[in-house]
Specification:
single chain; alpha/beta; eight-stranded parallel beta barrel; binds alpha-D-glucopyranuronic acid
């Protein structure tokens, strides 16, 4: 009971830490990067966190000397300290440990990271934040031996103010990273991707004035492309009644406002002659917000995205989303993708395929992907890892999902490329699940009413006629776009019967096929009916694409998937060997035949 209570207290504390406001647009702020080599200690038994009675050192008045976050050193030759970060090996941050250290390839558990640093141009009158692009899965963060906070969720950003603990020189930042899977987490125990652990994205220090620009949203008003809706939130003692200026020079906008007592201002500004952002015109405007002692500049595209009956309209014009699904992995280097270079490889391949749209599966990808999509004119489906069989009735599990959704929307709400928020993937229908997902959709709409809501649902054959596929799911009533995964010809049904398949969809909404595909080992050639051959995968695309084109309201597809990706579920030798082989490109970057089948199909679509 004492342990359960302390766990609950811990969870509530995490929520409070997680509620530290996320700095908007840290991406384009100047900061001091802490990327590079970090010392690490693999702590399978979490000896550095719990004493031998499994009581956490964390949060106690005088944590024992074996509390790793103290970074203790022996006082003299007799003193006993049984860990030493500076004698420990190092690895790259950002980066997962699985692809960097062979011994950690399959490792799921705790690894402690330590980074020592001095603050460049330290100014004691300023405020300092440390920002993490993501840490998989649970991060406990300490500065100079004291707790800064904790974060749960492997794919979204978080930051902590550290002004109160920071010094000019000889700081040490320690992060306990734990990527253990659990039934009540998001994602839950079973997924079809590699559970890469570590500090997987950028770590940056931001120096800010006492009062700074904490958050803003600048997008066209919903369904009104002649007006920009803006809100700005300041943080700091002088946030109230503060002069704020906003300039968008190319739109001849130069405005000044006063914040209310809470440091908040919301306005709508009419706009003329906007070059609307689109896949063929990825126009980004330079936008600057300034207050007395702070200024942020962002690059924002203005576009409207909506549905009308069975159509998806981009800037009021019907669009077909020529897409591909992508996992956040740089298979050629190995491990989680995180850099702009990684993003250029993945989105470069998507562009080569002829895509104007991508599904970033099944979790929020790094910000380089979405910023590059903004620049390249690629529309994006973003998703939180509410994947397969989540604990629908567990309130804490729901809170974890909602926090990840909130952090995603908080990060990308000013990105023109991001058009769809997906609440989930392949989740079993039940009342509890419907309640869970509907709450998430409501939250998403409350946070951002300018984008479309969807989820990857599932179809199945009609009892009375197996050649007729239907989607029986009450969540289809809640979404703006009906999306479902369909694997006819791979996970059921004969490949040579695909041409006879029909979908019966009696819902007046656009339809996106969020997944279809087949596995193939690149370089394995055989007749078209031989599974795992490139020819079988090619045939499945040749049969499926024209069949899907007949679906009433079909407005987009994201075949599964762009590149083969690592998965512990895929053990079949010689074909899989730890890889899901449904990629159109192999882990060595070689294109399979079906790559060209899809490319040709997209070339024929307006
Ligand atoms: C599912 C799932 C994917 C998975 C794919 C597959 O539909 O959404 O995550 O990788 O099927 O089985 O290959």
């Amino acid at each position: 009971m004492k342990f359960i209570i302390s766990l609950n207290i811990l969870f509530i504390t995490i929520c409070t830490w997680a509620n530290q406001p996320l700095l908007q647009n840290n991406y384009l702020r100047n900061g001091q990067s802490l990327n590079g080599r970090w010392h690490y200690i693999v702590d399978v038994y979490e000896t550095g966190y719990y004493n031998y009675r499994m009581e956490p050192h964390d949060g106690t008045e005088n944590p024992g000397s074996s509390a790793f976050f103290l970074n203790k050193k022996p006082k003299n030759k007799t003193d006993r300290i049984e860990y030493d970060f500076d004698a420990a090996p190092t690895m790259n941050v950002p980066g997962d440990w699985n692809s960097q250290k062979e011994k950690l390839f399959y490792y799921e558990g705790t690894v402690w990271y330590k980074k020592s640093f001095n603050v460049e141009n330290y100014d004691a009158s300023k405020r300092y934040y440390v920002h993490f692009g993501a840490v998989n899965y649970r991060a406990d963060v300490y500065l100079n031996g004291k707790k800064l906070g904790a974060h749960v969720g492997g794919f979204t950003p978080f930051n902590f103010e550290m002004t109160h603990l920071l010094q000019e020189k000889d700081n040490f930042l320690i992060v306990k990273v734990d990527n253990k899977r659990a039934a009540d987490e998001v994602p839950t125990l079973s997924t079809d991707w590699w559970n890469y652990g570590g500090i997987t994205r950028d770590v940056t220090i931001y120096e800010l004035d006492e009062t700074f620009i904490e958050d803003y949203k600048i997008q066209l008003t919903k369904n009104n492309n002649k007006e920009v809706s803006i809100y700005i939130q300041l943080n700091g003692e002088n946030k109230g009644n503060q002069n704020v200026s906003l300039s968008i020079p190319e739109l001849k906008i130069n405005k000044a406002f006063i914040t209310d007592d809470e440091g908040y201002v919301a306005i709508k500004i009419p706009v003329k002659r906007v070059s609307y952002w689109s896949d063929t015109n990825p126009k980004l405007y330079e936008v600057t917000i300034a207050i007395a002692k702070d200024k942020v500049t962002d690059k924002i595209g203005f576009r409207t995205i909506e549905t009308k009956g069975k159509e998806i309209l981009l800037n009021g014009k019907k669009i077909f989303l020529k897409g591909i699904s992508i996992h956040e992995e740089n298979v050629m280097r190995g491990g989680r993708a995180w850099s702009m270079e990684d993003a250029k490889v993945l989105l470069g391949w998507a562009k080569e395929l002829g895509c104007n749209y991508v599904r970033l599966a099944h979790y929020p990808h790094n910000e380089n992907m979405i910023r590059l999509a903004d620049q390249m004119g690629i529309l994006v489906w973003e998703e939180i890892p509410v994947y397969w069989t989540i604990q629908w009735t567990n309130a804490e599990t729901y809170q974890k999902a909602e926090t990840q959704l909130t952090e995603l929307i908080q990060r990308d709400k000013n990105r023109a490329s991001s058009i769809i928020w997906s609440m989930a993937n392949e989740t079993p229908t039940s009342q509890e699940r419907l309640t869970f997902l509907t709450k998430l959709a409501t939250k998403a709409r409350a946070l951002d009413d300018t984008r479309l809501i969807s989820a990857a649902l599932e179809d199945h054959g009609k009892k009375e006629d197996k050649n007729i596929m239907i989607v029986e799911d009450e969540f289809a009533e809640v979404v703006d776009v009906l999306s479902f995964n369909q694997y006819y010809g791979w996970y059921g049904g004969e490949i040579d019967n695909i041409k006879n398949i029909r979908w019966e969809i009696d819902i007046d909404k656009p339809v996106i096929i969020s997944e279809f595909g087949a596995g193939a080992l690149q370089g394995f050639h055989a007749d078209k009916m031989t599974r795992w051959s490139e020819e079988f995968q090619e045939l499945l695309y040749e049969e499926t694409l024209p069949t899907l084109a007949k679906i009433p309201g079909i407005s987009g597809i994201t075949p599964w998937t762009l590149v083969d990706f690592r998965s512990p579920r895929r053990t079949l030798l010689p074909y899989q060997d730890g890889w899901n082989r449904k990629g159109l490109i192999s882990e060595t970057g070689n294109k399979k035949k079906a790559f060209y089948t899809l490319k040709a199909f997209y070339e024929n679509i307006e």
